[in-house]
User: Fold these one by one.
Assistant:
Number 1:
Amino acid sequence: MSQTATLLVIDDEPQIRKFLRISLSSQGYKVLEAATGSEGLSQAALARPDLVVLDLGLPDMDGQHVLRELREWSQVPVLVLSVRASEVQKVEALDGGANDYVTKPFGIQEFLARVRALLRQAPQAVAQESAPCFGPLTVDLAFRRVTLDGVEVALTRKEYALLAQLASHPGRVITQQQLLKDIWGPTHVDDSHYLRIVVAHVRQKLGDDPTSPRFIVTEPGVGYRLIGPDAI
Amino acid sequence: MSQTATLLVIDDEPQIRKFLRISLSSQGYKVLEAATGSEGLSQAALARPDLVVLDLGLPDMDGQHVLRELREWSQVPVLVLSVRASEVQKVEALDGGANDYVTKPFGIQEFLARVRALLRQAPQAVAQESAPCFGPLTVDLAFRRVTLDGVEVALTRKEYALLAQLASHPGRVITQQQLLKDIWGPTHVDDSHYLRIVVAHVRQKLGDDPTSPRFIVTEPGVGYRLIGPDAI
DNA sequence: TGAAGGTATAAAGAGTGCGTAAAGATCGCC
DNA sequence: GGCGATCTTTACGCACTCTTTATACCTTCA
């Protein structure tokens, strides 16, 4: 998984938080922290993390309670930490909606492996966020497919690279330098006529008219931007 | 979970199997058993259990190997059992595709709770199971069988590896680098002509025409993708 | 009004990538 | 050890994409 996952650590002990923050950050994860249960719940609601690490021994409210409230609206994977090794505790937490239970003290390598295992089976949220739509035009970045009125449009590498770049930032102007650098490489940032030719090809395939564009708008002297029918 | 889930226990020790069978059956689960790795794999392919309990210490083949083969075609949750408590072992298993790792001896209540936790998050995995179908073409990843209009197509290792890779992500473009890395290894990511030859062979065996493809579509300069008749 | 900078489009040549065939090398099986 | 299947290597024709070059247009400002 190349894109960084966001993790929320809910633990009252600062040294544990620090330990986890350092360990998880070094793996490339984005780490959020909360010292209390209520803070953790509001953070989970606001930031929508991809995984929650929850310590059962919190000062303000029972860890079980936090878990139950979280599960009322979220299916995010939860890894529970606890010093209590009692089997009853584990059963309660797991049946309360936790996905894994690790007893302190624990090996950091095992902990990280369990985090990876939990994140691995959770990419359902990531999948559906691709395929931005611009009215009759859809640009599916995951499938590398472009459709116009439902029919597929055949694009060459550079044509697709251009459209994908524009579609990644809908409505925003992408400068010519940016486009040239990403498609032709840093050595061709001055060959802006390359860009015009490819833009013309894409427009032709999309049935787009530069003077009254449906999709690709020219920003003279600056760059291009991709719009939808509702003028994003 | 009201309807009974089917569990597969792969363990060579009869007393462990008996213990688990009794414990799991008393919870209402349907329990299948296998004493060896190869038996476990074929059972998993035939019965499609909802969860697999896998002991790493099998007589005929390495548990890691069983896990790897299973993961080639199935997303079924796997709970690994082991007497070895080494952290390296745990990390290997979890990164190899296991969803949980329990060290023997273990408390049966905790074990059952972990089973429940794994089954709870399982329903999304069920949907994508079984053999993907592309009109007259079926690619059964579990049995390593490819059929066209109902008759089996004989494919070589590389040919099958290519088709399986494409069939794992229907409709999605798989880049040449990805295919070369997975089939020939990271040292041959530049030998794209290997790819063309194998693609040509598969196309020939499937009666597919590159210019108007039924199945394998070329994305020039990028890679290939597998489509169905309904233009996935 | 005319020149200049930036833009759109067309067309031709060069170069690359793709598909196919066939021969040599290697592996596995009997 | 021999044989067949599979994989690797080599070669070549073809289509397509990219680059290059050229020309017309449009807006802005002197």
Number 2:
Amino acid sequence: MQQHDDIGFIIKLINECIEKKANQTLKQFDLTLSQARILFYLHDHNEATTSQKDLEDFFEVTHPTIIGILNRLEGKCFIRSETNSKDKRVKNIFLTDKGINLFCSMEHFRKTIEQKMIQDLTNDQIRELHTSLKTVYKNIQEI
Amino acid sequence: MQQHDDIGFIIKLINECIEKKANQTLKQFDLTLSQARILFYLHDHNEATTSQKDLEDFFEVTHPTIIGILNRLEGKCFIRSETNSKDKRVKNIFLTDKGINLFCSMEHFRKTIEQKMIQDLTNDQIRELHTSLKTVYKNIQEI
DNA sequence: TATATAATTGTAGCATGCTACATATTTAGT
DNA sequence: ACTAAATATGTAGCATGCTACAATTATATA
């Protein structure tokens, strides 16, 4: 069994390829893929207030990782943050108008990339792929 | 469509989960997953000489990335390198005895993780998963 | 042969992930 | 009410990925 046939290795190659292509596309917006994913989350959850902890839980990364990404987004004025008045430990994160405007332009690219990834697959194959990936994810989490 | 259902997002979650689990396991050997993959490659190709360029091509990463990993491996004496006498631009990479010994201990963990990932899947499902992932990889490369 | 191009490796600096440690605030227990 | 534990965020330093620029050697071409 060569490494190139390991599921884990193929998944790494796919992930890094997605990142490279997405980052090339997002460069025109002065964004990276990780940063764009945060903006998508904030847009999808704009009815609720979002804390750093919410983002850590959703993206399953540690808090220093989230802080770094948020600092860069705030530096570029795509988001703003303010301390929660009811619990001063918490910082709430909001999209700025600049961030909201960007979302509309990016939504198109997001759908395009996701669709190109699964072209040549039948609907059944896509369903199967989803199911198997979720099984793999569950398995790896249990180790 | 929520982000959690995007194939690209699930693949990112799987990849980072694999890295975390593998790095925990490999800590006892003073290795990371990326470093271990290099050692596996060198062991699998021990009949041929390996240059930095060969590793860049196989792992599909840029040369600064490979140089960083190799420097850390050489600092820990798992590999050694020497300039190719026939082409002085080229540096050839070799496993040391320390690196060879480690390989045997790690091979067990590699197979265990890869098997746990695909448990609960039938052979047909595993074949389908492989095929679909390779299609996705091809698609994303063409963007 | 001399020079231009290509190929291989090296360095600097950045983004995103991590662990470990620190700080501030809230909650729980006595 | 006071202290201990839990929770949320912040900082420092590292590994792995990247781009951009540089240096060396080999190859190709005028």
